[in-house]
């Protein structure tokens, strides 16, 4: 059996053509992970280019309005490029460069990871090509143009259901075709080992900062931390340094679309089963023959039929809970946060904000919760307007 | 040795692939029989999967057509039973790990044995993950066909040593689908593998012309053709039999010439 497991989950279920490359990546990452020069270079990029550390913002109006736990927001939306994705993109692109790669490819759903990768590639002088489901190039047209501005080539993927899952398929096919000079910058805590571990490490800066910030601010740990989950990168980043703090609840919010009793959802934990796909053993939405389901969410970034293997493990061991949040609930939270705090967050992050709105009033004023605001919502404004019946186009 | 060895007994083998249920299971049955009549030595039957990441667009679309037509795994087993009433030609499946895993490896390989399958190729199950199927496959006498790629290098002998049935030598980087040129030094890969195994080596990915089949027939024990056959099925649908016959016959002759 391969290495890189979280309990039974994880592994390296990929074509033979990629095996030597993935093992080379495993070795390179394990080297640079403990290389002080690499870590210093990355920290410098994060601090002086990506605007870290990100704010831990006390949402006082929201707290008063909800009348329970104190609500803090970890403001990944204030990072350069507007989401947590830059943490991982800079890490992987720097690693790719150290490995002698001249070209990076990436998949993207909402376009945030594509933009982050295109940004890191432009900054570090790497060629960049991004695969995006055709459906998503329409709902996130602004991000397509941003990637092009950054010098990346965007491929609209027309196979399958033309969303994130299909973009991953196509990026993997591209990687198999051109592996020598190319690194595949996987955008979430998914895929074959070492990606789930490596992406989590690069994103764990979120909880490393948040834990320190809340201790400085409040002198104690939060009762719960919340994050939205698609593949699970901002959630793993938000959870990681709290995993050992047994009294801190870890809550992942997955996309329930039009409801988990309909076929229109992407609620992997609620409705999925153990399977093997996209290089990993994890939980997937699939049918009775193991065919991967076409899933749905208003949020292109959560519109994925699987979840990272470490989340599957945290779920199995009961360390983290996963709650489905529907489209209309996320939209409600999106509008609520805009009106109460003056923050327009990504529709992905709004899934976690909604759950915070549900649990905060039931908690005491001594409790603290931290919500990871994984991205900003500029990209979603037009789509939400259309969802609300306004004929607005970018 | 399993029945797969029979495919390589009379000189160079021609291995033909098609996707079960494209355009229908009845037609798949007919086209398997057609390929055998035209001289194919072994048939690879694709169990359609929703997301075949090692396939090019031709086989991806065949998989989606087959699934849209309602093809289920149990239907494919029923197809194999029907084929086995007529012929003892070696048969192997090509599919992805999730359908097998979800069906349950033990139950899946038990059905393979009951229906008369001989082997299986799973492109997303590399050497390191063989444990997902190895015990169940062995218990039911089904060969796991391992793949060796142009990038395998120091892995070739490790993979070859556990080779069963035949070794599937991937001709070039990338996914399945026709190519105009194959540049990989296949002889070097095959020679390296042969140092540690007696299992035959067949080459696939990108082969579609008789010239290519002849050239590869010179260095390999067999030639595998998938996308080119699936293309004929996509083009002619229910009336593909004579076209498949002519194509397979020409390719088999070219393979033997090599």
UniProtKB/TrEMBL annotation, chain A:
Query: Could you tell me which InterPro entries the record lists for this protein?
Result: Trp_synth_b_CS, Trp_synth_beta, Trp_synth_beta/beta-like, TrpB-like_PALP, TrpB-like_PALP_sf
The protein's superkingdom reads: Bacteria
Record keywords, A-Z: Amino-acid biosynthesis, Aromatic amino acid biosynthesis, Lyase, Pyridoxal phosphate, Tryptophan biosynthesis
User: Which one Pfam family would you cite for this protein?
Assistant: PALP
Cofactors needed by this protein, per the record, are: pyridoxal 5'-phosphate
Q: Which reaction does it catalyse?
A: (1S,2R)-1-C-(indol-3-yl)glycerol 3-phosphate + L-serine = D-glyceraldehyde 3-phosphate + L-tryptophan + H2O
**Its EC number(s):** 4.2.1.20
Cited CDD domains: Trp-synth_B (cd06446)
EC primary class: lyase
Domain Tryptophan synthase beta chain-like PALP as annotated: residue spans? 51-375
User: Does Lyase count among this protein's keywords?
Assistant: yes
N6-(pyridoxal phosphate)lysine PTM positions: 85
Pathway assignment reads: Amino-acid biosynthesis; L-tryptophan biosynthesis; L-tryptophan from chorismate: step 5/5
Q: Which GO terms describe its molecular function?
A: tryptophan synthase activity
Under NCBIfam families, the record lists: trpB (TIGR00263)
**Quaternary form?**
Tetramer of two alpha and two beta chains.
Family, according to the entry, reads as follows: Belongs to the TrpB family.
Question: Per its database record, what is this protein's job?
Answer: The beta subunit is responsible for the synthesis of L-tryptophan from indole and L-serine.
Protein name, as recorded: Tryptophan synthase beta chain
Species of origin reads Megasphaera intestinihominis
UniProtKB/TrEMBL annotation, chain B:
| Pathway assigned in UniProt | Amino-acid biosynthesis; L-tryptophan biosynthesis; L-tryptophan from chorismate: step 5/5
Query: What EC number(s) is this enzyme filed under?
Result: 4.2.1.20
Which GO terms label this protein's molecular function in UniProt? Answer: tryptophan synthase activity
UniProt cross-references to InterPro entries, sorted A to Z: Aldolase_TIM (IPR013785), RibuloseP-bd_barrel (IPR011060), Trp_synthase_alpha_AS (IPR018204), Trp_synthase_suA (IPR002028)
Q: Does the keyword Amino-acid biosynthesis apply?
A: yes
Give me the reactions it catalyses: (1S,2R)-1-C-(indol-3-yl)glycerol 3-phosphate + L-serine = D-glyceraldehyde 3-phosphate + L-tryptophan + H2O
Q: Which Pfam family, giving just one, matches this sequence?
A: Trp_syntA
Which key words tag this protein in UniProt? Amino-acid biosynthesis, Aromatic amino acid biosynthesis, Lyase, Tryptophan biosynthesis
Query: Catalytic center at which residues?
Result: 44, 55
Name of the top EC class for this enzyme:
lyase
| Residues spanning the signal sequence | none
Keyword Amino-acid biosynthesis in record: yes
User: HAMAP family given for it?
Assistant: Trp_synth_alpha (MF_00131)
**Which family would the database say this protein is a member of?**
Belongs to the TrpA family.
Describe, as the record does, how this protein assembles with itself and its partners. Tetramer of two alpha and two beta chains.
Functionally, this protein is described as follows: The alpha subunit is responsible for the aldol cleavage of indoleglycerol phosphate to indole and glyceraldehyde 3-phosphate.
> What is the protein's given name?
Tryptophan synthase alpha chain
Which organism's genome codes for this protein?
A: Megasphaera intestinihominis
């Amino acid at each position: 059996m391969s290495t890189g497991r979280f309990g039974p989950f994880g592994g390296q279920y990929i074509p033979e053509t990629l095996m030597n490359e993935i093992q080379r990546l495993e070795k390179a990452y394990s080297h640079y992970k403990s290389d002080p020069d690499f870590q210093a270079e990355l920290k410098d990029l994060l601090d002086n280019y990506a605007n870290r550390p990100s704010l831990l913002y006390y949402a006082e109006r929201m707290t008063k309005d909800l009348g329970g736990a104190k609500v803090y927001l970890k403001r990944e939306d204030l990072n350069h490029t507007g989401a947590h994705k830059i943490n991982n993109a800079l890490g992987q692109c720097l690693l790719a460069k150290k490995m002698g790669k001249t070209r990076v490819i990436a998949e993207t759903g909402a376009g945030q990871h594509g933009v982050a990768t295109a940004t890191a590639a432009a900054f570090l002088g790497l060629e960049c090509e991004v695969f995006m489901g055709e459906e998503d190039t329409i709902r996130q047209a602004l991000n397509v143009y941003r990637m092009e501005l950054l010098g990346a080539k965007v491929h609209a993927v027309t196979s399958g259901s033309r969303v994130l899952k299909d973009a991953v398929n196509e990026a993997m096919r591209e990687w198999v075709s051109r592996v020598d000079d190319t690194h595949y910058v996987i955008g979430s805590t998914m895929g074959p080992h070492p990606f789930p571990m490596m992406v989590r490490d690069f994103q764990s800066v979120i909880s490393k900062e948040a834990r320190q910030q809340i201790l400085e601010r409040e002198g104690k740990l939060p009762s719960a931390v919340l994050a939205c989950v698609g593949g699970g990168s901002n959630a793993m980043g938000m959870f990681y340094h709290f995993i050992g703090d047994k009294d801190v609840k870890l809550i992942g919010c997955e996309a329930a679309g039009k409801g988990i009793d309909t076929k229109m959802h992407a609620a992997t934990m609620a409705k999925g089963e153990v399977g093997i796909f996209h290089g990993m053993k994890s939980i997937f939405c699939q049918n009775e023959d193991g065919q991967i389901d076409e899933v749905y969410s208003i949020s292109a970034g959560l519109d994925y039929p699987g979840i990272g293997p470490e989340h599957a493990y945290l779920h199995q061991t009961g360390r983290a809970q996963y709650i489905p949040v529907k489209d209309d609930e996320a939209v409600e939270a999106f509008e609520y946060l805009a009106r109460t705090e003056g923050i327009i967050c990504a529709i992905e992050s709004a899934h976690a904000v909604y759950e915070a709105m549900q649990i905060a009033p039931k908690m005491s004023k001594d409790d603290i919760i931290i919500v990871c605001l994984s991205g900003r919502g500029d990209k979603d404004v037009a789509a939400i307007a259309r969802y609300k019946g306004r004929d607005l186009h970018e | 040795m399993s029945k797969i060895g029979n495919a390589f007994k009379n000189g160079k083998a021609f291995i033909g692939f098609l996707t079960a249920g494209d355009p229908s299971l009845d037609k798949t049955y007919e086209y398997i029989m057609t390929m055998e009549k035209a001289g194919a030595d072994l048939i690879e039957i694709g169990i359609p999967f929703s997301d075949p990441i090692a396939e090019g667009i031709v086989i991806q679309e065949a998989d989606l057509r087959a699934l849209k037509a309602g093809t289920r795994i149990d239907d494919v087993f029923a197809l194999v039973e029907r084929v086995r009433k007529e012929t003892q030609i070696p048969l192997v499946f090509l599919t992805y790990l999730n359908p097998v895993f979800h069906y349950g490896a033990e139950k899946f390989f038990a059905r393979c044995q009951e229906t008369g399958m001989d082997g299986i190729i799973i492109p997303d199950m590399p050497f390191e993950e063989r444990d997902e199927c190895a015990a169940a496959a062995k218990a039911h006498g089904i060969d796991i066909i391992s793949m060796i790629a142009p990038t395998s290098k120091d892995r070739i002998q490790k993979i070859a040593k556990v080779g069963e049935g035949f070794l599937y030598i991937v001709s070039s980087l990338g996914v399945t689908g026709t190519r105009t040129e194959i540049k990989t030094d296949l002889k070097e890969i095959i020679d390296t593998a042969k140092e540690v195994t007696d299992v035959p080596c067949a080459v696939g990915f990108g082969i579609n012309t008789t010239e290519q089949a002849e050239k590869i027939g010179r260095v390999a024990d067999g030639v595998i053709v998938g996308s080119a056959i699936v293309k004929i099925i996509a083009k002619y649908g229910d009336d593909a039999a004579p076209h498949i016959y002519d194509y397979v016959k020409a390719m088999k002759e070219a393979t033997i010439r090599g």
